[in-house]
Each structure stands twice: as structure tokens, then as C-alpha cells.
């Protein structure tokens, strides 16, 4: 074991929050994320991912949840560890950032203030970010596009009940392209990630549409032996 | 941002190395990993994953490669970041460990000394490890069983050319169960991860068997925008 002094490295957490909101031009569902304006050097005035230092008595996920709540007021049900970023030159001082991500429901997203310090940006059209946060966001979006399964994406972005059109909107937003409704319906029917219910939309203006729900037997977080309890189950999520 | 003092947290790297070697009882391919005996407190005398502190001028992956070479003499072609472990009580002092993993060829594995300080253990039958390393190994094996694709597992554990029986041996070792040869052959033929060559084994004692190779178009490391160059391409892999 090399006996260098490891205390010159500081440990931080950051979180990429992604929510589905209408695109300002098209009105179609699009991926948005809240960013925080930095008020101190380095990168003062730049936008950055919400985060901060890991406290000496905080676990990594609890720390990510606490810094996220403090900076953006978001308290997501699920946080998933994305990657640890630790390049030597990613910050003027040496910082290793453990990055989490969360896909949040619209009601969770609504708790974020949209003001001078915190603002929602289209995930594909954000300004240049502080540190290596552009690279982190690029990686997070790549992971989202490659790794989410039908079940997880439905549970993450939508409510308990949703129509197939709403579910297709999620996929179109994530994949960045339109999907054929008939093919999409067929693919959903072939899988077991999403289950039809007996309920329909009220249909004031449109024909009532059947409501679906996520299959509760499929876990949201694909983390095997490390899967933590959901945040609601914790008496005190961030200590 | 909370202004706690983050310098009381130290950053370490550990690596889970997995290689395929014959099971001592059956002779069938099995998963083995090299462990390192700790010579200092805490957990003096216990076996642990190879690793050590991150140097102030080392990136995380370079650090993992350097500590691995120093402790076990292994220089794997690929290291992949597995997870950051940072529970408050995982060590007597506060340590965040960035854990990497690598699947290595037999020739890479042969460079590891098997002596008092470093020893190969069957992955499923290792002694109780220091710190939270049992949990880390459990997570790594779960990831291995869930996430490897045909292509990656072939490239990682076997040489440039391999028979279908050898490939099936890899899968049987990873999955911990025997597979039907005819079904396995059919599944391989349906995918594009493994390609037949014109070559065969020499077949001194057995009927010559066709040799296969991994499809080079399928990337080994599924890391998207973060995929690093392979270690051989680097002029100085660990600085």
C-alpha cells in the first residue's frame, strides 16, 4: 500500500435529476434537469449540478440526498449511484465526486424553485457547466438512453396509473424520436413490465383510455445485493 | 453547500480480479480471485481485496491499476469502475473506496504470485474478508452474473480463439450451473457476439473442434462516453 497522504483529496456528491416536462416549442414531453448557480469561486456564476461535500458522519447516498434537498428542495424517492468522477484536473483542488442520479415524478419536480439560483433546463440544451459537469450529464443521459427498462422508466417518470400514450411520450423524450403507436402497444403487450388495469381515463374530451400500472414484481433499482430500501421506508432519510 | 470539513474522509481504491481456473475437485472451469493478506491493523492477518490509497496526482483508474500491480503484480487490460463504497462504519476511520473490477485471461492471472501474502481463492469459497469486502465481492459476483454479455465474457476470460465448449465452460462457471450443449450452440449461433473462424483445434486426441472469436465490433466496456482507451494504448498506464 502506497503511503501517500490521502487527506489532500476531498469527497463531494452531486446528483443528476431528470424530470419529464413539456418542451416549450412542441409541448411534447421532454427531459429537463434542475441546475444550481454557483455563488462562489471556482466557476462563480456558472451553472452546476446540485451537490456539495460529504459530511464526516454521512453515508454517500444520505449525503447526496441531503445536499440535493438543501440546494434544490427535491427529495426523490430513489437515488441511484451513477459513477465516481476523480480525474486529477477536474477541479482546481483535488475533488472526487460520487455522482447519483434520480428520475423524478412531476409532483416531485414541482417542489424545485425556478429562480435566480435554481433553474430547470432542457437536458439537451443546457449551458456550459462548471467543472466536468458537462461530461457527467452526457454520461447520465447516455446511461438513461441505454439502460432503463420499460418498468423502471414508467415508475420513475409517471404516476401510479398512466395511459400507453403517456408511457410512449416518456420513451419518445428519452430516445429523442417518435415511436409508432401500434408497434409500441404491441411491444408493451409482449412484455410484463407494465400491466393493464380495469380503470380508464374519465375522457371528458377524448375517448376514455385504459390506464396501466408498473409491474410491482420488477424492482426499480437494479442494484442487486446493494439495493437500499426506498427512501420513504427510512425514518430519517438524510440524518 | 454544507461547510463541514471534508478532509477527514480518505479515498482508497480496491479491485476485484476474477479469473477462470479449474475447480480443484471437479476440474471444471471455476471463478477464482486473488486476495491479499493484510500486514497492518485494522484487520491485520485478514484477507482483503488488493488496493490502497489514491495518490494526490493519480486519477482513480490509474490509481486502481497502480495499487493492483504493487500488491498482486496483475496488470489487466481492462479495469471497469464497479461502485463507490462509503458507509460511515465500513472502516475504523472514514474511508470511501472506489472499487474496480477486471476479468483476466489465464496468462494475466499467472503473473500473480501464490504465496503467504497473495493467494487465489475460489470466488464462492473465500474466507471472511476485512472491512466490507465480503459485501463488495458479493456485489461484484452479482454484477458479473447479471450483466456480462456473451461477447464480453468471451473476450475477458478466454484467448483470441476458443471452442464453443470452452465458451460454455465460462458460462457454466459464472452461472454456477451446467448448460445443455445443443441449446448453448443454438443461442450462440442466433447472436452476433461470437463469430466462427475457419480454424479448428489440432485434435490429437479428440475430433477437431471449430474455433470461434469475439465479434470485434461489440465493445468490451459498456461505458458510453466514459469508455477509456484500453490500457495497452496508453503510453504510461499508471503514472
Automatic annotation (TrEMBL), chains A, B:
Ranges where the Nudix hydrolase domain occurs = 8-145
Q: Where is this region: Disordered?
A: 215-239
Return the InterPro entries for the record.
NUDIX_hydrolase-like_dom_sf (IPR015797), NUDIX_hydrolase_dom (IPR000086), WH-like_DNA-bd_sf (IPR036388), WH_DNA-bd_sf (IPR036390), WHD_NrtR (IPR054105)
- Pfam family for this entry, one: NUDIX
Full protein name? NUDIX domain-containing protein
Phylogenetic placement of the source organism: Bacteria, Bacillati, Actinomycetota, Actinomycetes, Micrococcales
